[in-house]
Each structure stands twice: as structure tokens, then as C-alpha cells.
Amino acid sequence: MSTIKTMIHPETGATLHRGRRVETVSYMGMSKPVDIEGWFPDDDGDGILMGADSAPLDAALAELKAAYRRETQALAKRVRQSAGLTQRDASLLLTGSPNSFSKYERGVAQPSWPTFVLLKLLAHQPTLIETIKAV
Question: How many Cβ atoms are within 10 Å of 18's Cβ, its own excluded?
Fold first, then answer.
């Protein structure tokens, strides 16, 4: 039985060879380089991943999501406590929803990207909370 040495990309027509490549997985401002095996052209063009080839990418994404969840839990609590707010008050003031901080701090929900950026800004400049309260 012979082993397939090349294949043709179904969309680009490029000749693909089995090989390794480093791809970057990104999630909510975090990223991680991942070494993957797949079918790739000689240039930097699109390749094809088959079967278990995408498993390292899936694992890296799961890892980034878990790290983001942990970071947002701690960040939400730190920002809220430093502002002297209850979970409900922080939720209403910063997201408009009455239960969002409870969910963030328990890790059941993650803030949207704009809310995450706002939390990061408040962590670096806690006095901004007074400006937000005055709006």
C-alpha cells in the first residue's frame, strides 16, 4: 500500500505536502502559537487539516478561553471591590444588566470585549469610576 505524498487543494489548486506549521490561535486579545501537522503548500498559502490535525488548535483555544474566564473573574471582582460597589450596583452602572457581575465573578458568563476593555481601564485608573457615575 502506498502512502499519499501530495494532494491538490480543492479551492486554490495548489499542490499540498504533509508537513508542520506554526499557527496562532487568538481569543479575546490573547494568543498562543501552536505547532500543527497538516497538508500545506510550499508558500504561506492555505492548507488543509484533516481528522485529528486540528486537535492542537482546539486544545489551545480551550486553554485561552479558560485563561480569559479566570482573568475576567478576578478582574471583575477587583474592579468592583476597589470601587466599593455591590455586584448589582457594578452591574447596573457598567453593563446595564442587574446580574452581570455576579455571573462574571462566578465564571458563568464572560463580559463582551468592550466591557472587558472597560474593566481593564478601570483596573489601571480606578478614579474613572467617578466619571462614569457622573454620566
Answer: 16
For the chain, helix, strand, coil in percent to 5 are 50, 20, 30
The amino acid at 86: T
Q: Check if the beta carbon of residue 11 is closer than 8 Å to that of residue 2.
A: no
Residues lower than pLDDT 70 in the chain: 1-2
CA–CA separation, 64 vs 24, rounded Å? 12
Note whether 83 and 97 are same-domain residues. Answer: yes
pLDDT at residue 44 in the model: 86
- Domain, as residue range, for 35: 15-66
How many domains are there within the chain?
2
pLDDT tens digit sequence for 98-112: 999 999 999 999 999
Q: Which residue has the cell 468592583?
A: 80
- Tell me the whole-structure pTM to 2 decimals: 0.76
CA atoms within 13 A on the CB side of 78: 15
CA–CA separation, 129 vs 3, rounded Å? 63
Cell of 51: 481528522
Specify whether 127 is located in the same domain as 78: yes
